[in-house]
Amino acid sequence: MSSDWTKDPQWGKTHGEPHVPVQGNRDSRLVVVGGDAMRPATRHILDRFGNRNFLFNLGHGFVPETPPEHVAELSEMLKAG
Predict the structure, then answer these.
(1) At what angle do helices 68-80 and 35-49 cross, to 10 degrees?
(2) Secondary structure (3-state) at 24
(3) Predicted structure pTM score
(4) Distance (Å, whole) CA 73 – CA 70
(5) pLDDT, tens digit (0-9, with 9 covering 90-100), for 45-79
(6) Which domain covers residue 32, as residue numbers?
(7) Number of domains composing the chain
(8) Cα separation of 40 and 2, whole Å?
(9) DSSP one-letter code for 23
């Protein structure tokens, strides 16, 4: 099940089957901006899904102007859970 980045992750959590992973999209512009825009938005997804299986991804992938250090920070956040 896939959830658009405009939907709250709670939607995917409550409308999907418990055994089916949810793919939660994040607006890729938040990774371009990074910092105080990216961190809480990413944390929101991680907190909403909790221990449910889900796939974190970006709605449109990384765009060329995305700073590599923001990608690294996002990656570390996702690894830490």
Answers:
(1) 30
(2) strand
(3) 0.77
(4) 5
(5) 888 877 777 788 887 788 899 999 999 999 999 89
(6) 2-80
(7) 1
(8) 21
(9) E
